[in-house]
Each structure stands twice: as C-alpha cells, then as structure tokens.
Amino acid sequence: MSAATAAGRRLVRAGSLVAALGVWQLLTAYDVNLWLRFEQFPTVGEVASALADRVGTAAYWQDLGHSLRRIVTGFLLAAVLGVAAGTAIARSRWAADLLGPLVEVVRPIPAIALVPVAILLLPTNEQGIVFITCAAAFFPVLVSTRHAVRALSPVWEEAVQTMGGGRARVLWSVVLPGALPGVFGGLSVGIGVAWICVISAEMISGEYGVGYRTWQDYTVVDYPGVFVGMVTIGALGLLTSTAVELAGRRVTAWLPRPASRGTAARGTAPRTGGPAGSGAPSGTAAPVPAAVRTVPEDAPVPEKEPVP
Questions:
Q1: Exposed/middle/buried for 304, CB within 10 Å: 0-12, 13-18, 19+?
Q2: What's the pTM?
Q3: How many CB atoms within 10 Å of residue 211?
Q4: Which of 18, 27, 97, 302 has the most CB within a 10 Å radius?
Q5: Which pLDDT does position 271 carry in this prediction?
Q6: Contact present, 47 and 227 (Cβ < 8 Å)
C-alpha cells in the first residue's frame, strides 16, 4: 500500500467521524423531531464543554483507572483460561467429554446475568466485577481457540513426531503457534464483550468506574455527563481493541502476508495456497512451524510400516 493510499484512508476515516459529529450538532441544535426526538439531546458543544470540565477533576481519572484495572485483570484471566481450556478441549477427548457439555450449557447465559452469582460467591463487589468481566471474555476466547486448534493440518504434527518430538514439543512448536491467528480473533471479540459487561456491572453494583459515574449522571438528569461517559467508554474500547490487534500482528509477524495489489499488477505470480485449515491466507504459502523448518534436507525419512 502506497503512502498516498494510506493517507487517503486515514483522511476518510477521520472525515466519517467529523461528518457524524456534524450531523449530531445539526439535529440537536435545531431540535429536530421527526419520529426520533432530538430536542432533549445535548449538542456536541455541550458534551465537549462537560468533557473538558470532567477531565480537569480527580474523580474522572479515578473512575477511569478503576475501569481500566478491572478490564485488564478480567481480560488477562479470560485470555489465559480460555486458551488453556480451548486447547485442552480440542486436543483431549477426556477434556472434551468433561468440559464440553458444561461449556455449551453455560455459554449462552449473558455474563451480566451472573451478577447475583458473583454477589453470593465473592466477598467484595470489586471481585464480582472482575469475575463478570472474565466470564464475558472467556467464552469467545475458548471457542475461537478450540476451532483454530482443530483446524490445524495434521502434517506438521506428524513431521514433529517423526523426528522424535513428544506431546509437549508438538504443543509448543506446532499447535499454539499455528492457532495464534484464531486465538487473537477470539481475543478481539472478547475485549469488546468485556467492556460491555464491565460497564454494566459497574452500573449495577460498582462504587467507582466509568459505568458507575455514567449511571449516576443519568439518575440526576445530567445528560451531557451521560454522553461524556459514553464518549469515554468508546475511547477506552478503541484503545484496548487496537492494542490487542497490534499485539496479534506482532506475535504473528512470521505468517506470510497477502501480496499487495501493486505486486499483482506487475505480473508477479502468487504463491500457491497452503493446506486447508493451516491458517495461511489465500494466495500465500502455508507457514511452517519452527520445529518443522529445522529438519535438514538430507535427513533420512523412515519407512512406514505397512498397514495390515
């Protein structure tokens, strides 16, 4: 992608936000009431003024810090537990039989419906909010990891086993690296769901946090303050989801990337696609795990025993 194209895309993205704010300002400034009622909505200027006032207070940053601490703690727990459980269910029949039915029964329950459970089980509201946040992100990570591990081609695993590698070697050199694209897909979904539930939990049982403050503003009919909370939540969600995306690109930098349009236009022949389920993008060579790439070219290939 050329620099001019990248700059044009950034300009379009910024323009879409500016256009949305302009429409909001017009609808609220002229009190438009065509089925949708905008006469009670605060204008963009009122929300910006309220945001400027809030940013200068210690309570705003205290609420922001509480929400960030809860989301980071719950999300990290969900990431570790979800990847571990998803890999175990995909690789072990015992784990699939023991955990699979329980996961499918609990997964449809909204995480926010677990608030009474958290209140009964955990001694403090803070731990309950972290528990709900973790539960919200856990299932997207687990399901994505399970599907990513099951979709891996068995060729790589067989190659490592042929060289004498055991189950641990296969897990760390083939399974986890090969499943990383799918895992980060689940993490991207999980961070968004986690924000929804942490804000809802703060509204119900929190003492501090962006969600708690937004609900308090609503109860006292401070609508500009409500929109300040909404803007803050959106900004925090954007920052955390972008951080997850960047981390995913960094740890999967060894994967081949699709050829740019400029390369295709110059007549460069694309490489053949990888095997089904390998996680390789279309038009690229299948990535080979490190354990398989270390096989010397002159290594003897053992003969297989005939199948009776």
A1: exposed
A2: 0.78
A3: 27
A4: 27
A5: 45
A6: yes
Q: Kindly state the helix (H) or strand (E) to which residue 50 belongs, with its residue range.
A: helix 44-55
Look at residues 239, 137, 136 and name the one whose alpha carbon lies nearest to residue 185.
Answer: 137
Distance CA 67, CA 236 (A): 9
Cα dist from 6 to 16, 159, 160, 216, 253, whole Å: 16, 41, 41, 42, 20
Q: pLDDT band for position 1 (50/70/90)?
A: low
pLDDT for the residue numbered 46: 93
Average pLDDT for residues 113-134, to the nearest whole number? Answer: 89
| DSSP letters spanning 200-263 | HHHHHH-SSSHHHHHHHHHHTT-HHHHHHHHHHHHHHHHHHHHHHHHHHHHHTTTSPPPPPHHH
Residue 279's Cβ-side half-sphere holds a number of Cα atoms within 13 Å equal to 30
Tell me which residue of 157, 154, 153, 159 sits closest to 174, measured CA to CA. Answer: 157
